Amino acid sequence: MQSLGPARGHAKGRGSQQALLARGIAAPRQPSRNLPVLTGTRDLIRRKPRSIRLGRASRDRMRGKWLLFSLLFLVSAVAYGAVIGGQTGLLLNTAATGVERLAVAVGFGVKRVTVEGQQNTTDADITAALGAGPDTMMLTFDTDAAKQRLESVPWIRHAQVMRLLPSTLQVVIEERTPYAVWQNKGKTYVVDNQGVVLAPALPQAYPNLPLVVGEGAAKHAAALYAALKPYGNLKRKMLAALRVGDRRWTLKFRSGLEIMLPDDNLDVALKSLTKLEAEHGVLERDIAAVDLRLLDRITVRFHETADAAPPATVAPADVPTASTGATPKGKT
Questions:
Q1: Could you give the angle at the alpha carbon of 203 between the alpha carbons of 197 and 205, nearest 5°?
Q2: Exposed, middle or buried: residue 170 (CB in 10 Å: 0-12, 13-18, 19+)?
Q3: Are residues 208 and 257 in the same domain?
Q4: Domain shared by 80 and 112, yes or no
Q5: Does the residue 32 lie in any domain?
Q6: Strand pairing partners for 290?
Q7: Per-residue pLDDT at 78
Q8: Buried b (16+ CB within 10 A) or exposed e, 205-235
Q9: 330 part of a folded domain
Q10: Whether the Cβ atoms of residue 263 and residue 329 lie closer than 8 Å to each other
Q11: In angstroms, how far is the first alpha carbon of the chain from the final one?
Q12: Which of 108, 201, 265, 295 could be a cystine partner for 190, CB 3.0 to 4.6 Å?
């Protein structure tokens, strides 16, 4: 009977524990009498790693907060100082310059320029107008402004500028076409059909271009030669076309003959000249000038004999002149 005492006590203790649990009261479990219990093991495994992990996170978080706070304070102080000192623009420019230098350093600078359509424009003119170099950042390069600068070059009619990332600028240009050689006030230039001066030039450098002389000759040359187009024989024998008073033309032929044309009605005057050449061969005769300024009459002036002719100033052979060149305005 005594052997049941402990069992009864154990059963009594178990019943008490179950009774407490049934009433909603937590009761510690009784350790088994057969197995040894390692006290503190659960606390060691559960608490020690947590305390280390939480301690590191807390220190890193605090350190990050202090660094962020310090950085914000520094930036705020610099910005405040710039505003107070009126150096906001300088600060922004400095920041922008830093960004540009960084972009250029990583390969976004202009390292190559390709040009299409170039014939007469010099490399120096294109480079100067483009305004780009190794220190120019591709991403901020203003292609529209570069286009306008290129089109201000006399030879260039139209231009197109494109960025080819990371480091190439592609330039496509359309050049003006030389149309005539213009001589004025002792200087000669090559011009296009609109009278735009392209460059200084010698007549010998453009032997196939017509020579026009006088004030306003460059601007009106295209209209004159459009009227002369059906009269190929006249054009082949011409030396130059002289603009008189910026109103009308005098045609200078290689034989020395001068044809004075009217202010308007050029086609009527040229037809009369063609008829006169067909009937009388005036272009091959020893004639000084043919005046076609009046539509109802044609005046022909022959060369005077050497004895009767007054002394005249001989003009250089390479500078054509008109007999009406020195006539005052209103009397031509």
A1: 95
A2: middle
A3: yes
A4: no
A5: no
A6: 259, 300
A7: 52
A8: ebeebbbbbbebbbbbbbebbeebeebeebe
A9: no
A10: no
A11: 162
A12: 201
Both 255 and 277 in one domain: the answer is: yes
Say yes or no: 293 and 184 in one domain.
Answer: yes
Look at residue 34 and tell me if it is in a domain: no
- Over its length of 332 residues, how does the chain's per-residue pLDDT go in tens digits? 444 444 444 444 555 556 655 555 555 555 544 544 444 444 444 444 433 343 444 555 565 556 656 656 555 655 555 555 555 555 455 544 555 555 455 556 778 889 999 999 999 999 999 988 777 878 788 999 999 999 999 999 999 999 898 888 999 999 999 999 999 999 999 999 999 999 999 888 899 999 999 999 999 999 999 999 999 888 889 999 999 999 999 999 998 999 999 998 899 999 999 888 888 888 888 889 999 998 888 888 988 753 444 433 333 333 343 333 333 334 43
Helix axis angle for 123-130 and 143-151, nearest 10°, is 140
Sort 45 into a burial class: Cβ within 10 Å, 0-12 / 13-18 / 19+.
exposed
Other beta carbons less than 10 A from residue 283's beta carbon: 19
Same-domain pairing of 186 and 134: no
Query: What CATH number did the domain enclosing 237 receive?
Result: 3.40.50.11690
Residues 153 and 213 in one domain: no
Q: Do residues 238 and 210 touch, judged by C-beta distance below 8 A?
A: yes
**Residue 261 near residue 248 (C-beta atoms within 8 A):** yes
pLDDT in tens, 196-234: 999 999 888 899 999 999 999 999 999 999 999 999 888
**Non-local CB neighbours of 324 within 8 Å, separated by 6+ positions:** 244, 250, 260, 332
Q: What is the domain range of residue 113?
A: 108-175
Number of compact structural domains in the chain: 3
> Cα dist. 110→10, 101, 116, 160 in Å?
93, 12, 17, 17
Alpha-carbon gap, residue 246 to 248, rounded angstroms:
6
> Can you give the CATH number for the domain in which 120 is found?
3.10.20.310
User: Does a structural domain hold residue 307?
Assistant: no
Is 141 found in the same domain as 58? Answer: no
